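On clarity, I found the account of how folds are encoded harder to follow than it need be. What matters is that the chain and its backbone geometry are given together, residue for residue. I therefore recommend that a typical entry be quoted early in the introduction. An entry of this sort, consisting of the sequence and the corresponding backbone structure tokens, reads as follows:
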Amino acid sequence: MILLQVVVSGLLMGAVYALFSSGLTLIWGMMNVVNFAHGDFVMLAMYAAFYAFTLWHLGPIFFVPGAAALLFVLGVVVYLGLVRHVARGPMLAQILGTFGLALVLRYSAFWAFSANFVSLPENLVGGTIDISGIRIEASKLLGGAVALVITLGMHLVLTRTMLGSRVLAVAEDRNAAMLMGIRPDRMQALAWGVGAATTGIAGALIALFFYISPTVGESLSLIAFVVVCLGGFGSVPGALVAGLAIGVIQALSAYLIGAVYQDVLVYSLFLAVLWVRPQGLLGKL
């Protein structure tokens, strides 16, 4: 029963990983640009949730959509102010541009919030829930369930709606999309906004049960890159599968061999999978 509880906890955490990683894979699929500041977007959302609660006593029903809206605006601003310009240059300019943005956001957070670790109250969302003998933290259950629904909804929007078809058309062939009357700049700005909004939702949900500090974005960025590479660049379903898998692997390895080794196992399995299938689990060559 304890092992099953660990697996369920890993799946819930993995669903949140999948949510913010799906934003990164959407951006990559649209523009072939890797956003090194993606994890720092999550960090900003975590602080937004923390201060929404501590200053205005707002609960998750308010600060989760608030963080999504805030990060959506930030994503669009970053695209218009930085990305669309460096995207015309060599790959090195894109890498250094988003990496520089990550450093700006991280050290601005040090200046604004200090280096101290903070967290939301553990009982902010209802303690624990007992489901057939499996005890689950309500905050993790809420976070995992909401993340799973939004990730699946994002996939449906991309594959079943006219707006999603336009986004995918730009990702497939920018010039052909222009000939069809689609404005690529608008679609790419939307993709950056949506990609950043996923970090806003995920960050606000993670803040319910995770520590908050200016450096938390570093580890989350690494997880996002592993999820996207493992699932397949540009594949939202791949990000979901990989996120759930990594969440379970982390939880099981922490329980069976110790938390200090969980990342070693994750990255080792990641390298092993890419050795056999370099395009990722659901990616295409």
The first strand starts at residue 128 and ends at 131. The first helix runs from residue 2 to 31. The chain has a mean pLDDT of 91. The chain has eleven helices and two strands.
